[in-house]
Amino acid sequence: MAKIVTSKRLTTLLEFLIIGVGAIIAAFAIEEFLVPNTILDGGVVGISIMINHLTGFSLSILTLCFNLPFLLIGYRKLGKIFILKSAYGMVIFSAFLKIFEKFANATSEYLLAVSFGGVILGVGVGLVIRYGGCLDGSEAVAIIINKTTKAPVGQMVLIFNIIIYSVAGRLFGFDRAMYSLLTYFIASKIIDFVEIGMNQSKAAMIITNDAEHISKAIYKKLGRTVTIMEGEGLVSGKKVVLYCVITSFEVRELRDIIRNTDQSAFVAISDVSEIIGHHMKKNDGLEKEDKKQ
């Protein structure tokens, strides 16, 4: 029991550490690439950048002050851990905005600022989200709205950001709004990539007449176990359906297995956003069973 508690504490400590690193990376992207070129991030940070450009008031303080009400609103509905991690990330983020403000700007070329700023920002925000926090209060509001109206979180954030970029277009010129929107799309793709990871899982459903050979080949070459189900086609009659979860890098190997085993098999491959529970592979529980045999 003591080992489990210690392990959980270490995991939590590591999560907070990575959230801090992500917040620092995001602050670097904002202060060194976006702000000097009047390119906006979305959400609360975008509003803070606009006010900073118009008034000269500290971006660091603006970001922290605007995020605070959203944290208080979400305290009861989003859970203490999420709010604690988010508050920690936001404080680190605001502090390093102030620190990076004194550094020389990374570039004055708009295309470089959009490209590198979007990628670096996406990496930072993606790390924070992946480990259970957020850096922008608008995301917390979108999550709360989703809980009551079922409106998609991503859609709510996009609508909010389009409004911000429209205002930015009126204030700073529509070229800046378009640069900002492009940065947002680049950052969003990188956030998805970081959050899901390179090793994104895929679900493969295989309808075949040669289930035994295919399932054995998958286990032997990919080290993946297979769930075997019975099915029946409207025209083709009884079939066997195999279901297994693989990584995106193993899709090509699966194609080769099907091609060499049963070319008449029907295969459907889809993305898996999350796996909950024990995902058995060779060299895991089944390897122990093989040794016993």
User: Domains counted in the coordinates: how many?
Assistant: 2
Rg result: 24 Å
Mean pLDDT: 83
Could you estimate the helical fraction of the residues in percent?
55-70%
Structure description:
The protein is an alpha+beta fold and 293 residues long. The protein folds into two domains: 2-196, no CATH class; 201-292, 2-Layer Sandwich (Alpha-Beta Plaits), CATH 3.30.70.120. The protein is 67% helix and 11% strand. Strands 2-3-1-4 form a four-stranded antiparallel sheet, covered by helices on one side. Helix 3 runs antiparallel to helix 4 (80-100). The longest helix has 33 residues, at 2-34. The radius of gyration is 24 Å and the shape is elongated.
Question: What brief labels describe this structure?
Answer:
alpha+beta, Alpha-Beta Plaits
Give a short summary of the structure.
The chain is α+β, with helices and mostly antiparallel strands and 293 residues long.
Protein topology:
Blueprint: H1 2-34, H2 43-55, H3 59-78, H4 80-100, H5 110-130, H6 137-149, H7 153-172, H8 174-196, E1 201-208, H9 211-222, E2 227-233, E3 237-247, H10 251-261, E4 266-272, H11 285-292
Antiparallel strand pairs: 1-3, 1-4, 2-3
Helix pairs in contact: 1-4, 1-5, 2-3, 2-7, 3-4, 3-6, 5-8, 6-7, 7-8, 9-10
